[in-house]
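request received
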Amino acid sequence: MVYSLILSNIAKHIQLTKKEEDLFLSLLEEKKIRKKQFLLHENEISKFTAFVNKGCLRSYSIDRNGFEHILQLAPPNWWIADLHSLISKQPAKLNIDALEDSELLLLYREDHEKLFSDVPKFERFFRILTENAMAATHSRLLDYMGLNAQERYEGFCNRYPSLMRSLPQKQIAAYIGVTPEFSSKMKADLLRKQK
Amino acid sequence: MVYSLILSNIAKHIQLTKKEEDLFLSLLEEKKIRKKQFLLHENEISKFTAFVNKGCLRSYSIDRNGFEHILQLAPPNWWIADLHSLISKQPAKLNIDALEDSELLLLYREDHEKLFSDVPKFERFFRILTENAMAATHSRLLDYMGLNAQERYEGFCNRYPSLMRSLPQKQIAAYIGVTPEFSSKMKADLLRKQK
DNA sequence: GCAATTTCTTAACCTAGATTATTAGTAAAC
DNA sequence: GTTTACTAATAATCTAGGTTAAGAAATTGC
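response:
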């Protein structure tokens, strides 16, 4: 497993000494999971945050009618967790599984806390990380509130062209909040329009 | 203006010395605004975070059809800002105004940064604050994706009974994402059901 | 205290997107 | 290399919630 990705991810916001870097890396657990395997099941208590080195994960909830709604997609260089379960130590409402064979680095909550007290700079790093994630989630919520399905679909194409290519379109539908049937219709309409 | 509310808000997560407390309070700017006055206009660059001591604010965006969508409601003891504009220094996509006459404490971004370097504990405080806000926003996004209007309406009644009483119902409609007309219909249906 | 504005209610009608069903393509498993 | 299981396309039908309109009630301002 390579650590260059996670170290450059961190170096964007804080500078670590060699010693701090080593401490941090020593806390990480490497994990490989195969497509469709779960990292977290609903009702479990989430014990770690995962950094995606390779592959792609998703977190999603299942509604009363059995439909999946994707809260987060995590391609390489992203962090993913059930934040609510992690901080409240309550059972997760989310599932997290792999959309492709993936390589992860896990940071367990207790080590995470230890890291915060040993290297306070990490408070800063995760404060900034969470602020950015918050701003992104705000913008997604506003899209849900103010845009129609076609606009959300086009927004996704523009923002995540590589996911657009790598993910099955039913996953994209579950992310933008439409049925796969309607997503297929929008795709056909778009193609027709472009010609 | 009283500082007890903001100090207890902070004391929930970090302990400050008297000196740190004084430094923090010295950075705050008191501001009173009247109902309907703006704290931030779309396209301005957001320069501060506001803590609500009294009253109630909202942040919202206006969609292409002129409809308002409320991103956040901030009753007393809550923080509010256009986070995206604040961290990216880009023009705000949100408006922030007062739903009632309100008393605020403003923390300007430059003082905020100063606070982070002078008292690193505040990194921790705002990290935790943002994590909690993130978890709340996740849950709200999942509600948008998986619940129908009636369920979101009932969810709001249960979670925020006091806002339910103090806010005009068109604001509640703009928060849960329905038209005022449909919100009125749901209210009538609920009353009928309860009898 | 009254006029002006804003908010709320009700109801008829409309539409974006869901549902259901069928058929076809694609990839994985044996 | 054929069976099994996902994944996608298309189309007919249905419905939750939006739109429009018009009157009633509540607030606000002077």
